[in-house]
Amino acid sequence: MIFVDGVPFSTSQSQMVRGREILAALLDHPVVLSSSDHLKGTPEKKVSSAERPPVGRLVYVFQREYATVDPALVQLVGTDEATTCVGLVIRSRNTGITSVSHMDFPGVVDNGLAQMLSSIADNDDDSDEASFDVHLIGGFDDGPKRHPINATVSERKQKKEGFSLPLCSKLIEALHNSQQKFHLQTLCVLRHNTKLDSCGNACPIVSGFLVDTSSNSIMPASFDRSSRGPDEIVRRIRVSLSSDDSNWKGRLLDTYDTCHDRFEIAPCTWMSDWKYYASSLQQLSDSEFLLRCSTSPYAEAPDFVESERRKWNYLIENPDWRTTFTGKKPRIFQRTVDGGWSKCV
């Protein structure tokens, strides 16, 4: 169940109303408008692990990952690079335990939400009486006006809707249908999160954020390569190839051990043939590469192509997944004294 300003949110329609109708009503709610404007008016925090003094004990979440953090151990948790994706924050009002995910398609929402709530309950002694603050940030009005003349019916529908609307609708529907109490604090998505660039292309206003776990404050943020750790390239590969691994079908990727404040990058398999596809991508120009690899090529950050090329180059050099996940075991990273990460041998 969704609450807005402490009041259960309902529409004039039946209880069987679809997520899309609930979403449309929520986007018009004055409290939602106010919170979106507040977030967009907050200066963006540029996060770097090289920053001195250190930014704090940080956990970074990549696309299709989630991490649940204890405020006693972690000060900051965040994500970025969300164009058509949506960042979901769920924070227990009882304990402050905070779970952050980077949702990228509707098919992962139901299981992903269950994973997040389960991980909070595992660390919350009062989970039976729990209620949660919720933030949804990311996704924009990305439905293009044109489509290829030879596009299929399903492709034309996707082109017309874009990627963000179905994802946002599914998220709201899942929250609405849940037995849990979700107090909606931020809904900065779709038209509330859309601007035009200098060429007239739609793009998101906020594509990343940082949560202060002690205060539940949230701000727009962008992260440099040094702060997107640990194990950036391997985690990017898991995002791209996990759909081929039945262990991760319809699920968010396990990443972080809440109790021990360490990363456990769970194994993901891939076929050695991926190196040939990766090699073909590396032959493309940057503009062709961008169009091939992104759902929102005109909205990506300047470092998108570089990051993707580094990922595909890793697959060329490491075609056998077992050399990455030795013994089919997770890659484990412990927190260092300065707040960074060190790989366990």
From TrEMBL:
GO terms for biological process: ubiquitin-dependent protein catabolic process. One of its GO terms (molecular function) is protein-N-terminal asparagine amidohydrolase activity. Pfam families: N_Asn_amidohyd (PF14736). It comes from the Eukaryota. InterPro entries: NTAN1 (IPR026750). GO terms for cellular component: nucleus. This is Protein N-terminal asparagine amidohydrolase. It comes from Ensete ventricosum (Abyssinian banana).
